[in-house]
Amino acid sequence: MAQKKIGKQTFQFSSVPVITSWASVVGPKEGEGPFGEQYDLVLTDSLAGEKTWEKAEQKMMQYSVELALEKRGLLPKDLDLYLAGDLLNQIICANFTARFLNTPFLGLYGACSTLAQGLCVAGILLEGGFAEKVGVSASSHHNTAERQFRTPTELGDQRPLTAQWTVTGSASFVLERVGTGIMLTHATIGKINDLGVSNAQDLGSAMAPAACDTISTHLEDLGRSEADYDLIVTGDLGFLGSNILTELLTQKGISAEKIYDCGITIYSPEQDTHAGGSGCGCSAVVLAAHLIGCLQARFYQRILFVGTGALLSQISAFQGESIPCIAHAVVLEAGRGDR
Q1: Which residue ranges does the chain devote to CATH 3.40.47.40?
Q2: Per-residue pLDDT tens for 218-249?
Q3: pLDDT score at 271
Q4: Which residues of 82-98 are buried (b: 16+ CB within 10 A; e: fewer)?
């Protein structure tokens, strides 16, 4: 039997599970960004016809998983497991979406690393033969996150330049043990990094060390270098966090030339989000709308997708605690049957 764990934190999937379907749903601001035409559905308003922002976010997640299943010609009952998470207390968007699907469900919380975490867990389940088909979803909403983690939007507080804009969006993915699609070949499970940053309005600085740790560990575990990847994708470090990551990688002798941050690319400069985008939905919708298409077309052959998460809560922030952060990574390759 081939060794499944390599080095300290990396798992290789010899059966090579594949992402066979995906879908993205975003809010109007995201639809005005660079990937506007690539999303499956752009909402006309942030309430999505609902009375609360939380219900709107749950509706986005439900739409995205319905679309991903429909594209593949599947029904919810065809999934062996559904893995999902969001930023809200008790991951209510994921819970209520799972209630609708009525499939076996594992709720996930990794803050903005949730999508990468879900892909890691899905890969392990499929590789181990515990499932044939797994659904993975992640979502966030600007207004739900502002209300829970910062200040009510009605208060109109001035945002500092270090702040990032939480993405209103959700993406879902169907992964299968056997099939045609984007190949999932490795996963690197991150560990907590906390260098003492406590400013909840500067999460990029807090998360950068975790991204550096996971990237460097992944490369060391596999005996690879950054040259073995077309892109090293980070979830939502934003402008400030990406600059810090560049410095940290350079100190380790790793070139940051191929770093691509979803938080930087999801909005155009004219949209003035300050330090960039963030949220569970940030990396999820960029992967579903843009990056997977690039792999399908073989514009990229292999990318390292690194989801970054700041694991704070309102209580820990109010009590002055520093912010523990994590990053999980998966290797995605142009797959079987792609053009």
Answers
A1: 16-176, 184-334
A2: 999 999 999 999 999 999 999 999 999 999 99
A3: 86
A4: bbbbbbbeebbbbbbbb
Q: Taking residues 154-177, report their average pLDDT.
A: 80
311: how many CB neighbours lie within 10 A of its CB? 19
The residue type found at 168 is T
CA–CA dist 275, 1 (Å, integer): 47
Average pLDDT for residues 86-113, to the nearest whole number?
97
What is the rounded CA–CA span in Å between residue 45 and residue 43?
5
Three-state secondary structure call for residue 36: helix
- What predicted TM-score, i.e. pTM, was given to this entire model? 0.95
Q: Would you say residue 339 has pLDDT above 50? A: no
Which listed CATH number (3.40.720.10, 2.120.10.30, 3.40.190.10, 3.40.47.40) goes with 184-334?
3.40.47.40
Q: Report pLDDT for 131.
A: 98
Q: Which pLDDT band holds residue 154 (cuts at 50, 70, 90)? A: low
* Residue 182, strand partner residues: 19
Contact 185, 221 (CB under 8 A): no
What pairing do the DSSP bridges indicate for beta strands 231-234 and 302-310? parallel
Architecture of the CATH domain 16-176: 3-Layer(aba) Sandwich (3.40)
Q: Where are the alpha helices (DSSP H) in 185-313?
A: 203-222, 238-251, 262-265, 280-286, 292-296
Nearest CA to 287 among 303, 276, 272? Answer: 303
φ, ψ of residue 332 to 5 degrees: the values are -115, 135
